[in-house]
Amino acid sequence: MWLNASTDYAIRMLICLSRASGVVSSSKLAKAIGVSPRYLLQIGARLREAGFVHVGHGSAGGYQLSRPPAKISLMDVIMAMNRKGNVAVLPDKRLPKEDFHTLECTYRRLEKGIHRQLESITISDLSQTECGELNRQIGKANT
């Protein structure tokens, strides 16, 4: 599974919002995650459509989470940002089953494991946890 840049920036944007108290301006968010304000607006629109953020306009406007960060999983964000909903290890073209059945079964197991991990990690986890601790949590989930 590979994340595209928009999805990565969306996750970063949600982490920043989860750490903020109140509304955060688009210019501050763009600077914090390292994107142009115009690109941030595109990402923000997708996050708003998915119900993750509220958007305020005007001088006091900006972005704010519309639900608790513990209720937003990485899988939720990836599905919202990937219009095709593709979070797969499997290739688009299926392999002939008679020749590569074991390989396809392995891909399916990997895909299920990736989905479980993405569903178990929330924006709250990412905003409050150091990388080492998160890696330990992931390791525990795999055992």
Automatic annotation (TrEMBL):
UniProt cross-references to PROSITE patterns, sorted A to Z: HTH_RRF2_2 (PS51197)
GO CC field: cytosol
UniProt GO MF annotations: DNA-binding transcription factor activity
Source domain of life: Bacteria
Stored PANTHER family: HTH-TYPE TRANSCRIPTIONAL REGULATOR YWGB-RELATED (PTHR33221:SF15), WINGED HELIX-TURN-HELIX TRANSCRIPTIONAL REGULATOR, RRF2 FAMILY (PTHR33221)
Name by which UniProt lists this protein: Rrf2 family nitric oxide-sensitive transcriptional repressor
Lineage of the organism: Bacteria, Bacillati, Bacillota, Clostridia, Lachnospirales
